């Protein structure tokens, strides 16, 4: 409680007892007085102020009646204060409790919706001591659900909640409204204040604050999908029926992580008439075949007509991925394919909520977890890879927080493919997480096979590196120029000199150092 509040309470109590003393003094001049002591005056004031009025005690002198009238008038105010106190008790209690939770980790959400509920529940399950905070909301159903997870609701906005924490440490702030552009603008306004800020948005500016993590539902869907449902080495044809951002993110992630052999030839058949994927990534044509199936490189085949006109392609595919933006449409396509056709491969469909009997992905419960949204494991791996690089070169900067968005994305892409490297080395597609143990086991296998398969390992890493840079439209130039996105290594592996080829050993050798960084 603030000092001025304490002084106000003390002043009111002093005035109250002064009135009681004055009442006793005034009544002492009458022999008929029933109020003759401080005890009588206290009892009279209580029954009067609370509007009970037993009538057993009452003032008889003129001054006593004046004081009694004051108590009568104050009784109305007291009653109103009691009503207000009852109505606001919940908020008072929340603020009182938060005063004792200053050292806990706070997770503050800008709004209450299905996505924030799913994330908050995941955080609470992983960290029972976490403090979940929302602005007070009229959605009774979601409020009731979150109260079961011990969430607290504060009247006002995000600023009102943040004002209740005395320090900015252990404070995580989430902006996850449907409007991604507003999320980004609001999130940026809270950066640089010591908070860890997260926002769901497809929009990012060129210079992203170091303390801001921007995540896209479509991007997280693609990353989680290919991590948990890796493409088998035997797969040759994959059909993607999609629209919107899901097309771009599923394809981009597939080309970066589904790289198991330098001469592999997987054909991705894309049914997404609205996609501008190749218009945004024209340099990819130097790495993959476009609209022409190749025998020694991956291919992207874009169809201008609906999937229903190419049933032969779909029925012979090793996998069919259905990922439009509408759950109802995904289920319609799924039902049509399962009802009328015999398919060679499985159908994977994106659904917001899991449905028994289907191979669904992209559900809220899987996407809105701290590991996916906050990228705890992925960021830890990517930042560890960067730190290992700094240590190996003797450099002290730039630190992870100071990297440009592109360089961070490059490290994250390398971390994504690290899981593929582990799967290749350990010959196990069931591995879905990068841990210290899997890194060490993979490194030991690498050491045993590197002399025999050195060129294979180097070639694979170079192709991965080129694919990532081609996605961002880097081109070849004898002199490196980051401003123009030009690099001397943007050439086929065979055209690199031996020393440059050997540099790709580093991406496999760091498995050993990562094993130490990622110890459980």
Q: What does the model show?
A:
It is a single chain. The chain is an alpha/beta fold. It is built from 19 helices and 15 strands. The protein has a seven-stranded parallel beta sheet, with helices on both faces. It has a six-stranded parallel beta sheet with strand order 3-2-1-4-5-6, sandwiched between helices. Helix 5 links the parallel strand 2 and strand 3. The longest helix has 38 residues. The protein is elongated. The two termini are 43 Å apart.
Fold topology:
Elements: H1 3-27, H2 38-49, H3 62-99, E1 106-109, H4 114-126, E2 131-135, H5 140-148, E3 152-154, H6 158-162, E4 171-175, H7 180-189, E5 196-200, E6 212-215, H8 217-228, E7 237-242, H9 244-257, E8 267-271, H10 277-280, E9 289-290, E10 299-302, H11 311-315, E11 319-323, H12 327-340, E12 346-350, E13 359-361, H13 364-367, H14 370-373, H15 376-393, H16 405-426, H17 436-471, E14 475-476, E15 486-487, H18 498-502, H19 506-517
Parallel strand pairs: 1-2, 1-4, 2-3, 4-5, 5-6, 7-8, 7-11, 8-10, 9-10, 11-12, 12-13, 14-15
Helix pairs in contact: 1-2, 1-3, 8-9, 9-17, 15-16, 15-19, 16-17, 17-19
């Amino acid at each position: 409680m603030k000092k001025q509040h304490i002084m106000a309470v003390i002043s009111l109590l002093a005035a109250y007892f002064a009135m009681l003393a004055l009442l006793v003094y005034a009544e002492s001049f009458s022999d008929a007085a029933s109020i003759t002591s401080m005890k009588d005056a206290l009892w009279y004031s209580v029954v009067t102020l609370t509007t009970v009025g037993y009538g057993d005690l009452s003032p008889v002198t003129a001054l006593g009646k004046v004081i009694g009238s004051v108590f009568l008038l104050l009784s109305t105010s007291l009653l109103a204060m009691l009503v207000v106190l009852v109505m606001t008790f919940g908020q008072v209690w929340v603020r009182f409790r938060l005063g004792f939770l200053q050292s806990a980790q706070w997770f503050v959400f800008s709004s209450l919706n299905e996505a924030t509920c799913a994330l908050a529940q995941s955080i609470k399950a992983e960290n029972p001591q976490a403090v979940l905070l929302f602005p007070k909301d009229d959605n009774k159903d979601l409020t009731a659900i979150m109260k079961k997870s011990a969430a607290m609701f504060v009247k006002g906005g995000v600023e009102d909640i943040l004002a209740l924490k005395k320090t900015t440490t252990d404070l995580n702030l989430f902006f996850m409204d449907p409007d991604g552009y507003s999320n980004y603008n609001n999130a940026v306004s809270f950066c640089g204040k010591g908070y860890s800020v997260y926002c769901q948005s497809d929009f990012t500016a060129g210079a992203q604050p170091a303390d801001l993590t921007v995540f896209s539902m479509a991007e997280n869907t693609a990353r989680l999908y290919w991590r948990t449902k890796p493409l088998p080495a035997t797969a040759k044809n994959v059909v993607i029926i999609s629209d919107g951002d899901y097309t771009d993110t599923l394809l981009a992630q597939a080309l970066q992580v589904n790289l198991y052999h330098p001469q592999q030839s997987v054909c991705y058949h894309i049914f997404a008439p609205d996609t501008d994927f190749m218009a945004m990534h024209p340099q990819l044509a130097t790495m993959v075949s476009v609209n022409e199936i190749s025998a020694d490189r991956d291919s992207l085949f874009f169809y201008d007509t609906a999937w229903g006109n190419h049933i032969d392609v779909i029925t012979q595919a090793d996998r069919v991925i259905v990922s439009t933006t509408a759950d109802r449409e995904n289920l319609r396509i799924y039902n049509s394919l399962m009802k009328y056709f015999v398919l060679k491969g499985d159908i994977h469909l994106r659904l917001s909520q899991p449905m028994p009997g289907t191979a669904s992905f992209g559900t809220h419960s899987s996407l809105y977890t701290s590991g996916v949204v906050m990228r705890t494991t992925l960021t830890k791996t990517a930042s560890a890879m960067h730190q290992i690089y700094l240590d190996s070169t003797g450099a002290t900067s730039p630190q992870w927080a100071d990297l440009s968005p592109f360089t961070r994305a490059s490290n994250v892409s390398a971390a994504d493919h690290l899981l593929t490297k582990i799967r290749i080395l350990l010959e196990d597609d069931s591995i879905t997480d990068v841990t210290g143990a899997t890194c060490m086991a993979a490194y030991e296998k690498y050491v045993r096979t590197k002399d025999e398969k050195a060129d294979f390992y180097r070639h694979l890493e170079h192709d991965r590196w080129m694919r990532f840079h081609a996605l961002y439209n880097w081109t070849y130039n004898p002199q490196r120029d980051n401003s123009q996105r030009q690099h001397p290594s943007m050439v086929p592996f065979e055209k690199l000199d031996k020393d440059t080829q050997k540099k790709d050993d580093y991406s496999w050798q760091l498995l050993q150092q990562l094993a130490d960084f990622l110890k459980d």
